[in-house]
Amino acid sequence: MFGSRRPRVLAALCAALAIALLASCARVVSAATEGDSPAADSSSSGKKPNIVYVLTDDLAWNLVEYMPHMRQMQKKGTTFTNFFATDSLCCPSRTSLLTGQYAHNTGVFTNTGDDGGYGAFMKNRNEEKTFGPALQRAGYRTGFMGKYLNGYQPADRNGTSKPYVPSGWDEWDVAGDGYKEYKYDLNENGKVVPYGKAPQDYLTDVLSKKATSFIGSSADAKKPFMLEVATFAPHGPSTPAPRDKDKFPGLKAPRTDAYDKATRNAPKWQRALSPLTAKEKEETDQKFAKRVRSVQAVDAMIGQLEKTLEEKGLADDTYLVFGSDNGFHMGEHRLRPGKQTAYDTDVKVPMMVTGPGVPAGEEVSQLAENVDINPTFLDLAGVEPPSTVDGRSLSDLMHGRTEDEWRQAALVEHHHAVSKEGDPDAAPKDSGDPPTYAAMRTDDSLYVEYADGEREFYALGSDPDQLTNRAASLSAAQRAALHHTLTALQRCKGAESCQAASRTQT
What we know:
The chain contains 15 helices and 16 strands. By secondary structure, it is α/β, with parallel strands linked by helices. The protein has a single domain (50-407), classed as 3-Layer(aba) Sandwich (Alkaline Phosphatase, subunit A). The strands form 3 sheets. The protein has a 10-stranded mixed β-sheet with strand order 7-6-5-4-8-1-9-10-2-11, with helices on both faces. Residues 49-383 form the Sulfatase N-terminal domain.
């Protein structure tokens, strides 16, 4: 049923491995070797490298083919082909990116309410864990632009109506509700500036100009810099720039093997899904075309950033990193457009990097997650990541070096939102609104445990689109082993603990 490798693969999941200290020791020795440290790759001049991170909202892999600068990044740099979000939902995913911790350690599981949003982020003291303050202390000029976290308002500090700029950021240009791309406010270094609906107010373009200015002023100051530019695109309503509104006429959403196909042995929350109607297919196509149009400005911004770095003589000293907080399904599994599931459409996201020492045209297949972003940026800057982060630095992998004892399982954890009020990602039942779950993605399987007791297991070698749930075919021993490893991941805390939990017996 699972092919010749399946019994061995399932057996490999039968126990969690104790922590492998050898990997940590080997890394220390390797870093001490001349020419093998991240700093040796960072810059031909020996300076600290710059880091520019472009983070998009809801950008799935199926949009990359429409982004020429992104495709050029793939040719010039390295692509992580198995990069996963710890939750296919904005606020918990972005919190993991900023802090390097899983949701069970940040306390941010949803976009609103007691267990989510900016309120939960602040309540659980996550702000001090972000990479901004650490890099600023290391001598970096730091900038953050665009979307921060759900619930953050430019003109409000804990209900006091005073504009708030978090510590650790030298440049702060952040919006609250910028999804429409027009008629928003930006907190510009503590001053709230309103923008209107003129073409020049289009938010992605405004961010591009501010990012270009930040790079220029940092070059003039002769200081290393770290800049995150977080767009609202292509999140709905997926408003394109005026120049792009008529592009791609007649474009349709991809008809993958999972498009309008019901999951066999589906969990209860999917069983009522009906085939897509002709009208729903047309609406899905229209939404996909809008998403494609809305990322044209993002792609243009990447091109402008690259041009500016070249003009300032900084290209050889700068890592340019591109990513997304989560993916997006559009008709797969008969789900209407949305996210929040554990399927690859939602949690497997683009991740590319170019920069000093990064090989061109390479792909990294090791399992990586957004909890790895924080320790990666610190590592590239020559800062030792704290032991409290759950992720690991991707520096060796992005520079073409191997990593011993790398993770064999990636954790996804999602809470069903108690309230949908004020949540831009609130989903109707037919677009993906599953019960609370935890999931574990390995190289060749997906295992999901729902709070209502249901289970999913997909053997990806024979079922890459995750259409046949084989959980009922697992033996009692196999189910126990999978549950044991997933539970260990859900309970892990800190780099050593999470590394041990992510390793399965071989």
